[in-house]
Amino acid sequence: MNPYHYTVFGETPGYRAFAKQKNKRIKGIMVARKDATIETLAELNGSKLAFPSPAAFAASILSRAELKEIGVEFTPQYVKSHDSVYRSVAKGLFPAGGGVVRTFNNTEPGVRKQLRVFWTSNTFTPHAFAAHPSVDQQAVQKIQQSLLAMNSEPAATPFLFAINFKGFESASHQDWDDVRALKIDLLDDLKTGQ
To answer: pTM of the prediction?
Structure first.
């Protein structure tokens, strides 16, 4: 699950991370058209901006949090996918939009060549592989061992390459303290009764 979702659902109902992508930190980016004069987030004051979804951690939450932190007033427009963000900004429908490096690099070359990254967030712990507290711990350990075994299994290399992973590493609940430190409250209403 995404890093922010893990911090919420790690609290209630108590999901526990057991793995994460090896040697990976995630960061958000903001893109604009190559021919735009935008150089800083502050220049977006009063703009309508494209984001994939409200709870997309790196592509939306990090960018929106930084905009709020520096006092930029903006209207978020959620366009359902990273690809839609890039296409919408390339078409000039929005002056800028949020994404992540991986999806930006994987977007259609004809769209990507019209855009440039003008802002990058700090880096954070990536997505969690986590289990609900009701899942048998022996089963969780077997899944964890299988994921970790892929790191040294030559037959797994094409699968890891296909998802752009260098491998897996063990994870613990505290690994997401960097995300918790952001004090995001977007899903606080879901913390009760789950």
So the answer is: 0.82
pLDDT, mean of residues 29-47? 98
Shared-domain flag, residues 104 and 69: yes
Tokens of 23: 């040697």
- What is the pLDDT at residue 185? 77
Question: Does 186 fall in a domain?
Answer: no
User: Do 52 and 107 fall into the same domain?
Assistant: yes
Buried b (16+ CB within 10 A) or exposed e, 24-62: bebebbbbbbeebebeebebbeebebbbbeeebbbbbbb
**Is 187 inside a domain boundary?**
no
pLDDT > 50? residue 194: no
